[in-house]
Every structure is written in C-alpha cells, then in structure tokens.
Design brief:
Immunoglobulin-like, DUF4249 domain-containing protein, DUF4249, signal
Length: 271
C-alpha cells in the first residue's frame, strides 16, 4: 500500500520533468525585410484617374503601411498620351476609398483599349502594369422572394457572352456604398459560358431594406488578385490553412492596375 502511495506521488513529478525536457527555446534569424511599393489603381470611364501608392512593411512592424510622398504615377493612354497623377491624398466619402494620387483629366477609354501605368519613387523603385478596358455586362433583373418568416432572398440575373472567358465580381451593399459590403465574391463562366446566370443569396433581408447591387465585368488578373486576397485573409491566424501569397498584376511591386466596367441597380425590398 505504501509503495502504491509513493508511486502516485511521484507520477505528477515525473510528468512535470518530462514536459520540461520537451521545451526548448530556438532563436530564428530572419532576413532583413526590403519594403516594396504597394499600388492600387482602378480606371473608370468618365472619372478622374486615381491611384493609391503605399509601402509594404514587415510582419512584426506596425500594421499601417506608410504613404510614399515622392512617388510619381504616370498613366499612358492607347494614343500614347502620358498623364501624371499628382500626389494629393484624399478620402472619397461616397465610397470610403482612400487615394494618394489623382489626375485632373478623366479616363475616356473604350472597350479593347489598353492603358499602361508606371510608378517611380525617389529610391529608384519602379512598378509597371497594364489593363485592357472591358465592356459592361448589364444586370437583366433583380428580384426577391419571401419565405413564411417574412425573410427575403435576392436573385440577380445577367447574360454571359458566349465563346470567351469571362470573370465577374458581384457585390451588394445595404443603404450606402461607403460602408462594408453585404456580399462580395468573384466567379467565372467556366460552367456557365453563354448562359443566363442567376446569383442568389440566403433568406436574410427584410421588407424595406435598400440594396445596392453591382455586377463588375473584370479582367482575369483582377479575378486572380481578389481570389488571392480572400485566401490570404482566410489563412491569417488559421494554423490549419495553407499560407497564401497575393497574386499581383504588377511588375516590380505588389498590387493591381485594372479597370472597372460595371452595372449597378438600387432596389427596395417590398412585398
């Protein structure tokens, strides 16, 4: 009996000693991080050309990327005209989007036109990219249906152009574009080429809700960029997720240069 009591008393001590043997501090030498230019630029017909130029930071540094005041942004049209965007940080209240550079001229490109972008800064860094202007794909119908709990689902329908790869971004906002989106995802026509496509939601809306529905016809490079950003967000802090790298459309930096071709409708849910 005494022998068993001694054994029971020793077991916790043995477990503690074993766990101590398993702990070991390891010093990892990380290479010095070289900041890169981070650029976002979205051309929209009839609107001023605007871009955001920031600088990336290391994982253990402050999370807010700094602006780059000495960066110069050029956008070249299909005619060869080179427009310089001025450094003029501004927050657009209607969309909640922040820009660092703006032109005084508006973009007048037509579907099929190719625009080029070049960004240089005082440290000799250079970022380049190009975008091919897309045509708008019209929203044919936005409808909703109620269930027996007075909850409504939303259905948005459009026609996909046949015999060509197409990529879309679908977004809905409640009341205003300045807040976060209610829904936001990208899709392709791999399984719906040339078909009439309907995008639906769950039963989540109520009578009286004002919804802003936007369908973007996007480039493959923008589709890849958005999908990679979503994967990176999902992997952040998740020990079971595969690390994901942002698929940039730019040479010499990180980010996206593309154009926004979209159709938008505002509806109020009514019975």
């Amino acid at each position: 009996m005494m022998r068993n009591c001694v054994l029971y008393l020793l077991l916790p001590l043995l477990a503690l000693l074993s766990s101590c043997d398993l702990e070991k501090d390891i010093d990892v030498s990380l290479p010095a991080y070289a900041p890169q230019l981070v650029v976002e630029c979205y051309l929209e017909p009839g609107k001023q050309m605007r871009a955001t130029v920031l600088e990336s930071s290391g994982y253990f540094e402050e999370p807010n990327p700094p602006v780059v005041p000495d960066a110069i942004v050029y956008i070249t049209s299909p005619s060869g005209k080179r427009v310089q965007l001025k450094y003029k940080p501004v927050m657009v209240k209607s969309t909640g989007r922040f820009y660092t550079h703006t032109s005084s001229e508006v973009m007048t490109g037509k579907p099929g036109d190719i625009y080029q972008m070049e960004v240089v800064d005082g440290r000799g860094r250079k970022v380049t990219g190009f975008t091919k202007i897309h045509s708008k794909v019209n929203i044919e119908e936005v409808e909703w249906r109620f269930n027996d709990k007075d909850e409504a689902l939303l259905i948005t329908t459009f026609q996909d152009a046949p015999h060509t790869p197409n990529y879309y971004r679908y977004m809905t906002h409640i009341d205003s574009l300045s807040g976060g989106s209610d829904r936001d995802f990208v899709t392709s026509d791999d399984l719906t080429d040339g078909k009439r496509v309907s995008l639906g939601s769950s039963y989540k809306y109520a009578e009286g809700d004002t919804l802003i529905v936007t369908l973007y016809h996007i480039e493959k490079q923008y589709y890849d960029f958005l999908a990679s950003v979503s994967d990176a967000k999902n992997a952040n802090g998740n020990p079971f997720a595969q690390p994901s790298q942002i698929k940039s459309s730019l040479e010499g930096g990180i980010g996206i240069f593309t154009n926004l071709a979209f159709d938008r409708k505002t509806v109020v849910i009514r019975k």
